[in-house]
Design brief:
With 169 residues, the protein is an alpha+beta fold. The protein has one domain: Roll (Thiol Ester Dehydrase, Chain A), CATH 3.10.129. 24% of the residues lie in helices and 32% in strands. Strands 1, 2, 3, 4, 5 and 6 form a six-stranded antiparallel β-sheet that branches. The radius of gyration is 21 Å and the shape is extended. It holds the Pfam family MaoC_dehydratas. Belongs to the enoyl-CoA hydratase/isomerase family. It comes from Streptomyces mirabilis. InterPro entries: HotDog_dom_sf, MaoC-like_dom, MCH/BMMD.
């Protein structure tokens, strides 16, 4: 293939390109989801830099998060990563879930969580969202997910729930 043929092929491919059809995963609907489906986020090892960045953004300057001596004097083995930072790892956008439901997503309705164990710099977190409920409501439906985060020792450090509102077919 010479340069002219290559340019013609590229032009033909470009004219056939449809940005709306450029999906990371095939789009699904509320009706396509199944209880028990799991949407995992990539594992992430937290560092002191992550904790410092979150402290800056959140303005949470409690010494339990940055003062090792203060933390030890108060019963902690090391400074504790901010709970809201840990919770943020359950964000649906950290998984492929929003790519699957992007065309029918209306809103993130609510979330709740329980912090079950401390997280420290150096811990690796494994977040997941598991579909635990599908509640049709007229033209819409609520997807309930169990939000979990385990650490590198297999300990459940966060357990919670998210609810999302989706359009139905």
């Amino acid at each position: 293939m010479d340069q002219q043929d290559t340019q013609q092929a590229a032009a033909a491919a470009s004219s056939a390109f449809d940005p709306d059809a450029f999906l990371v995963v095939p789009a699904r609907t509320f009706e396509d989801l199944r209880i028990g489906e799991v949407f995992r986020a990539p594992s992430r090892t937290l560092t002191d830099a992550h904790a410092a960045a979150f402290q800056t953004v959140s303005a949470d300057n409690h010494p339990v998060h940055y003062d090792a001596e203060w933390a030890r004097r108060h019963g902690h083995s090391a400074p504790v990563v901010h709970g809201l930072q840990v919770l943020a790892f359950t964000a649906p956008g950290a998984t492929l879930f929003p790519h699957f439901i992007g065309e029918v997503f209306i809103s993130f309705l609510e979330l709740s969580c329980t912090f079950l164990a401390e997280v420290h710099s150096g811990d690796t977190l494994y977040p997941a969202l598991t579909v635990s409920g599908l509640e049709p409501q007229g033209d819409n439906g609520v997807v309930v997910t169990a939000a979990t985060i385990h650490n590198q020792r297999g300990e459940l450090v966060l357990s919670g729930q998210h609810k999302y509102l989706l359009r139905r077919q």
